[in-house]
Specification:
α2 packs parallel to α5 and α3 packs parallel to α4. By secondary structure, the chain is an alpha/beta fold. It starts with a strand and ends with a helix. 35% of the residues lie in helices and 18% in strands. A five-stranded parallel β-sheet has the order 2-1-3-4-5, with helices on one face. The structure holds 1,3,4-trihydroxy-5-OXO-cyclohexanecarboxylic acid (DQA).
């Protein structure tokens, strides 16, 4: 049984650390990846960490998770609010999905209040910065009974 969690990051998250730091903080995406790997190791899981600015590439990566990963933790970034295609890809692979956002999207512009992904997610974490990724991984460990 797979114990790998696919951690996906959507567009512009490669600029984390220099992108609007008042909103997204000073950590880089490499820092977030490092924290995810540490958390996963402590939880008895592995992490496959991926970021892309290309929607088709994200959809292909989601498809590959079927049968190889135990779940998907995704920060779809702007695609959260726009992409039926990513929502459908997540639904198609029939894996548990946790949606995460660094910022509290509900405190921000109204166009960020709607998510196409949330209705198919087990849960949604937002506003807790990169700690949200760690909480999501910890929840996967709980769901999968993986915690040592
Ligand atoms: C984000 C919130 C989105 O609205 C935004 O488009 C992002 C990042 C977050 O992590 O807070 O790019 O997903």
């Amino acid at each position: 049984m797979p114990t790998t969690i696919l951690v996906l990051n959507g567009p512009n998250l490669n600029l984390l650390g220099m992108r609007e730091p008042a909103t997204y903080g000073h950590e880089t995406l490499d820092d977030v990846a490092q924290r995810c790997h540490e958390t996963a190791a402590a939880c008895g899981l592995e992490v496959d960490f991926f970021q892309t600015n290309h929607e088709g590439e994200m959809i292909d990566r989601i498809h590959l998770a079927r049968g190889t990963c135990a779940g998907i933790l995704i920060n779809p970034a702007a695609w959260t609010h726009t992409s039926v295609a990513i929502r459908d890809a997540l639904a198609a692979v029939e894996l548990p999905v946790i949606e995460v956002h660094l910022s509290n999207v509900h405190k921000r512009e109204t166009f960020r209040h709607h998510s196409f992904a949330s209705p198919i997610a087990v849960g949604v974490i937002c506003g807790l910065g990169s700690h949200g990724y760690r909480l999501g991984l910890d929840h996967f460990a709980h769901l999968l009974g993986a915690k040592p």
